[in-house]
Amino acid sequence: MTTSEAALEGKRRTAVGEGVRIFKMAAWLGWQAESNWTDPWLFVIYSVIKPVAGTLILVLMFAVAGRGSAPELFWASYVGNAFYIYVGQLLWGISWVVLGDREHFQTLKYMYIVSPSMGWYLVGRAAAKFFVATIAVLIVLGFGAWALGIPVTVRGVDWALFWPVFLLGIVSTAALGILLAGVSLISSNHGAMAAESLSGALYLLAGVVFPVDVLPGWLQPVSLALPHTYWMEAVRRAVLGHGISPMLQQVSEGQILLILALTTAGMVLAGGGFYRWAETLARRRGLIDQVTWN
Amino acid sequence: MKAPPGSPARAWWDWKYVRWLLELNLRAVRARAYVRVVATGREIMWLLWEVLLPFMATAAYVFIYRALNAPPAYLGFVILGGAMTAFWMNVLWAMASQFYWERYSGQLELFFASPASLMAILLGMSAGGMFMTSVRAIGVLVLGSMVFRVEYAVAHPWLLAYTFLVTLWALYGLGMLLASVFLLYGREAWHTSNLLQEPVYLVSGFYFPVRALGFWVAAGATVIPLTLGLDAMRQLAFGGSPWAIAPDAVGLFPPGYEATALTGMAVLFIGAAYKALGRMMWAAKVAGTLALKH
Question: A293: distance to nearest CA of chain B, Å?
Answer without folding.
Answer: 7
